[in-house]
Amino acid sequence: MKRIKIDSSMITRDPAEASIVSKNLEDFGYDGAYTFEGPHEPFLPLAAAALATEKLELSTSIAVAFSRNPMTLANIGYDLQLMSKGRFTLGLGSQIKPHIEKRYSMPWSSPAKRMKEMVNAIKAIWSCWHEGKDLDFRGNFYQHTLMTPIFNPGENPFGLPKIYVAGVGPLMTQAAAESGDGFLVHPFHTTKFLENITMPSVKKGLELNSGKEFDISIGIMIATGITDEEIGNARDACKAQIGFYGSTPAYKVVLEQHGWEGIQLELNNLSKKGLWQDMSSLISDEMLERIAVTGTPNEVSSMILDRYGSIASRIAPSVFSGDPELKKELIKSLKDKL
């Protein structure tokens, strides 16, 4: 079995905090750390982390693609690869139409086609800089045809970053495999969904871009503890998160695999009423155990390898537990079995 790398989220309120946080993650033994597009900008903490660490691989998981353009993403990706000495991966996601149009005031259309084109545009810009090729990218959404020497950083001594794309539905998944270097599997999934939708879509995309190395990075929700009470509390917290994700229409496709699409409509109605606290009551134990992994750290680590060992290049555990020592025990158990 190939070695699976383990990544951790890197949550900071101030980008400067990333220096300490990232060094702690590296010292603990994580392979990678990632930021995400939340209440803070995702790239600045990675700049601080790049200077504070030596081995830790750094990524965005994710940065919102459609709130930016290919040139700005090419610039920041190139520079973070330079600062980290070759340890950066650009992880992109589409977000949803209301956020792109109403929060970012940016255009929305054909997200899978736009994402594929954006990734290809970034790679065309990088090829111009790194390999000296003419910049002549002409797409339906983006056109980049001007690069004067003063704006060309030249060859990157550490090579070019990988680009991972996040998605749920088959069109975005296939687009990721056609244009990107890896696929980010959202924690809201089941093995049946991966088998029936995700992996066939990846295979279809790779057939159109044959001979390419391609990574699968899987987010995993984990409810763990030592005692029954600890595990029960973690399961309740995990159900609340599943309810939050399940209220989003884009994730209905996951629930449809199990005949649970009616629950998605109920969750969505609760979200519109602001009744977030009521969502977890709709998540059954069966739903929890299909979507998340639950049990003691040792049980959880074995289940993760059984579920994902044959397909995952990387895993990103989201651990629901009030005890940080349990998270350490889980990661140690995983590393011992990898």
Describe the structure.
This protein is an alpha/beta fold and 338 residues long. The protein has a single domain (5-221, 308-337), classed as TIM Barrel (Alpha-Beta Barrel), CATH 3.20.20.30. The protein is built from 13 helices and 12 strands. It has helices at residues 18-28, 44-52, 70-83, 97-103, 111-131, 170-179, 191-207, 228-246, 252-256, 261-272, 285-291, 297-308, 324-337, and strands at 5-9, 32-35, 57-60, 63-64, 88-93, 137-138, 143-144, 162-167, 182-185, 215-224, 293-295, 314-320. Strands 1-2-3-5-8-9-10-12 form an 8-stranded parallel beta barrel, surrounded by 7 helices. α5 (111-131) runs parallel beside α6. The longest helix has 21 residues, at 111-131. The chain is globular and about 65 Å long. The relative contact order is 0.11.
Describe this protein with a few key phrases:
338 residues; alpha/beta; TIM Barrel; eight-stranded parallel barrel; two-stranded antiparallel sheet; 13 helices; 16% strand
Briefly characterize the structure.
The chain is α/β, with parallel strands linked by helices.
Give the topology.
Elements: E1 5-9, H1 18-28, E2 32-35, H2 44-52, E3 57-60, E4 63-64, H3 70-83, E5 88-93, H4 97-103, H5 111-131, E6 137-138, E7 143-144, E8 162-167, H6 170-179, E9 182-185, H7 191-207, E10 215-224, H8 228-246, H9 252-256, H10 261-272, H11 285-291, E11 293-295, H12 297-308, E12 314-320, H13 324-337
**What is the residue-mean pLDDT, rounded to a whole number?**
94
Q: SSE string, helix = H, strand = E?
A: EHEHEEHEHHEEEHEHEHHHHEHEH
Strand order of the largest sheet: 1-2-3-5-8-9-10-12
Distance between the termini: 8 Å
CATH topology-level fold name: TIM Barrel
Specify the helix fraction band: 40-55%
The secondary-structure class comes to alpha/beta
Name of the top-level CATH class: Alpha Beta
What's the CATH H-level superfamily name? Answer: Luciferase-like domain
| CATH architecture label name | Alpha-Beta Barrel
Total beta strands: 12
Count of DSSP-assigned helices: 13
- Rg calc: 20 Å
